[in-house]
């Protein structure tokens, strides 16, 4: 006789930051690049490192989760971003994006902008962040966090 013990659903599911390179996430496209401030810095989990843009807008970057994930909250830490649009895609390839949210951010002199988006839970394989305009010629994106549930079965 075998006894099969299954963990409770709450034990199989854990909320995690899905936008970390340690979770297998990658930045697969960025419209500008500087070897000192590469786009991979966005997903390294540190607000001390960052990706910086060139002086033209719009600028964008795409994050690939390599699987379908469920996201309940997005947070971005950036500097000098004026207008931001976030889009999602469920496709196998980074196409067919749909808008999640678009917002004008507040200027924070000498401090990072931390913008939290509590959204109805949604699924995505890709997220595209479009920086439509800025308060200066350059912006920096320090971290992107996507809080979601990962099924550990």
Characterize the structure shown.
This protein has a single domain, classed as Jelly Rolls (Sandwich), CATH 2.60.120. It is 3% helix and 54% strand. The chain has one helix and eight strands. Strands 1, 2, 3, 4, 5, 6, 7 and 8 form an eight-stranded antiparallel beta sheet that branches. 27% of the residues are buried. One of its GO terms (biological process) is skeletal system development. Keywords: Calcium, Cell projection, Cilium, Metal-binding. Residues 30-135 form the F5/8 type C domain. GO terms for molecular function: metal ion binding.
* The level-1 CATH class: Mainly Beta
Helix content: under 10%
Structural class determined from secondary elements: mainly beta
**Main sheet: strands, sense, barrel:** 8 strands, antiparallel
Radius of gyration: 17 Å
The helix tally amounts to 1
What would CATH call the architecture?
A: Sandwich
From the N-terminal CA to the C-terminal CA, the straight-line distance is 23 Å
Give the tally of β-strands.
8
Shape, principal axes of CA atoms: globular
CATH topology: Jelly Rolls
The CATH superfamily is identified as Galactose-binding domain-like
Quote the average pLDDT. Answer: 90
User: What order do the SSEs take from the amino end to the carboxyl end, as H and E?
Assistant: HEEEEEEEE
As a percent range, the share of strand residues is over 45%
């Amino acid at each position: 006789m075998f006894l099969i013990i299954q963990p409770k659903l709450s034990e199989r599911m854990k909320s995690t930051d899905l936008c970390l390179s340690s979770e297998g996430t990658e930045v697969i496209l960025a419209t500008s690049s500087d070897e000192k401030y590469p786009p991979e810095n966005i997903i390294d989990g540190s607000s001390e490192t960052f990706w910086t843009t060139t002086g033209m807008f719009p600028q964008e970057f795409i994050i690939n989760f390599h699987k379908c994930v469920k996201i309940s909250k997005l947070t971005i830490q950036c500097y000098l971003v004026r207008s931001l649009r976030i889009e999602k895609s469920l496709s196998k390839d980074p196409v067919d994006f749909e808008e999640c949210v678009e917002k004008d951010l507040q200027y924070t002199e000498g401090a990072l902008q931390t913008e939290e988006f509590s959204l109805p839970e949604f699924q995505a394989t890709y997220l595209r962040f479009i920086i439509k305009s800025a308060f200066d010629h350059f912006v920096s994106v320090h971290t992107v966090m996507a809080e979601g549930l990962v099924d550990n079965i």
